[in-house]
Amino acid sequence: MSRLSLAIFCFLFVSTIVNATDVHYCDKNEEYEVKVQGVDISPNPIARGEPATFSISANTDNAISSGKLVIEVSYFGWHIHSETHDLCDETKCPVAIGDFLVEHSQVLPGYTPPGSYSLKMKMLDEHKKELTCIKFSFEIGFGSSSVADM
C-alpha cells in the first residue's frame, strides 16, 4: 500500500512540474523594472464557461502608484482579442517595493474554441512607460459547457 501512495505522490509531483506555465519576456535584451517570477493558471487547462484565474507573481525595485495591463490574445498565431485593465483593479495599489501578485479572473464564453492560445501582457505605469512585457501559452480544454452559456 505504501508503494502505491509513493507512486501516486511522485506522479502528482511530476505532473505539477510538467504543467508549469513557461513564461518569456517579450524582449530578451530588455531590463524590465518589473521582474516576473511565474504565472499560475487555474484551472489548467481552462474550462469554457467556467471562471479562470491568471496569477502573476512579480517583483519590483520601485513603487508603482498606478498603471495599466494591456493584454493581447492569439489563437494558433492569429490575434483574436485585446483588452486593457487598470493595474489597481488587479493588484493592491500603490504597489510597494518587493514581491507582489497580479491576479485576473475571467469567465470565457461557452463558445470559445478549445485549443492552444498565447497571451502577451504589458504592464505600463501611469506615464505609459513599459514596466514589463511577458508572453506565455495556455490551453482551453475540450470539456463541454452548457448551452445556456452560448
UniProtKB/TrEMBL annotation:
UniProt-listed SMART domains: ML
Signal peptide limits: 1-20
CDD domains reported in the protein's UniProt record: PG-PI_TP
MD-2-related lipid-recognition domain mapped to chain residues: 23-138
Keyword Phosphoprotein: no
Gene Ontology molecular function: any one: sterol binding
GO terms, biological process: intracellular sterol transport
InterPro entries (UniProt xref): Ig_E-set (IPR014756), ML_dom (IPR003172), ML_PG-PI_TP (IPR033917), NPC2-like (IPR039670)
Keywords: Signal
PANTHER family listed in its UniProt record: MD-2-RELATED LIPID RECOGNITION DOMAIN-CONTAINING PROTEIN _ ML DOMAIN-CONTAINING PROTEIN, NIEMANN PICK TYPE C2 PROTEIN NPC2-RELATED
Entry protein name: MD-2-related lipid-recognition domain-containing protein
